[in-house]
Design a protein that fits this description.
Helix content: over 70%
CATH architecture: Orthogonal Bundle
Mean pLDDT: 87
Shape: flat
Oligomer: single chain
Largest sheet: none
Structural class: mainly alpha
CATH class: Mainly Alpha
């Protein structure tokens, strides 16, 4: 085991880590936004909205992320006539995938809120939209925080797959270092340690948030 290459190649790991964090941040931000929309569509009484959301979620959850990444990276340029940067394509693919899972998590959280609360706020004159925004969804997020935290961790780990389309993430930097140093094993250990530090830190932050929410209750 020889890790002497770190003194020369550590900036590549730093760059890859920053790119991974940026990729995960935008994916999670957009995933939550679209996840809320899809969850509300699936709970809608409109059969068209409900049917579209259900079909989208089932299709995305039933197909591999790798296939979705290839479709976005190679397929969208043929449909739109524009070639998207690798980083942008990676965000789209991960968001498309993550939003389907987040939508189901949010839907379960909304359904876990007592239906009587919706009836109570509606009887006070609040519209359905305002009731969902200020009463139901905030409570749902408290219920789904552990599951949402797990999904965030999954996104960070699954983001390693974008290295195959040339995005300079942690995995991509590790592969470059492996090729430059002719050491197939040690660079991957560093990659694994970096991913563990990120996910372990995020897991602890989610735990702190959960405890604070329990205290607020």
């Amino acid at each position: 085991m020889d890790f002497s290459f770190l003194s020369r190649y550590y900036p590549m790991y730093i760059t890859g880590t920053l790119n991974t964090l940026a990729l995960a941040f935008f994916t999670l931000l957009l995933g939550v936004v679209f996840g809320i929309v899809l969850a509300l569509m699936r709970l809608s009484k409109n059969p068209i909205l409900k049917g579209f959301a259900s079909s989208y979620i089932e299709f995305i959850r039933g197909t591999p992320l790798l296939v979705q990444l290839y479709i976005v990276y190679y397929g969208l340029p043929q449909v739109t006539g524009m070639r998207f940067p690798s980083f942008f394509a990676g965000i789209i693919a991960l968001t498309v995938n993550s939003s389907a899972y987040i939508a189901e998590i949010i839907r379960a959280g909304i359904l876990s809120v007592d239906a009587g609360q919706m009836e109570a706020v509606r009887s006070l004159g609040m519209s359905h939209t305002l009731s969902m925004r200020y009463i139901i969804i905030p409570q749902a997020f408290k219920n789904i925080l552990p599951a949402l935290g797990n999904e965030f961790i999954v996104v960070i780990k699954e983001s390693a797959i974008v290295s195959i389309i040339g995005i300079y993430d942690i995995m991509y930097s590790g592969n470059i270092i492996r090729g430059n140093t002719y050491r197939p094993f040690e660079p991957l250990i560093i990659v694994a340690i970096i991913y563990f530090i990120i996910t372990f830190g995020l897991s602890n932050l989610m735990g702190i948030a959960e405890r604070r929410m329990r205290i607020s209750d």
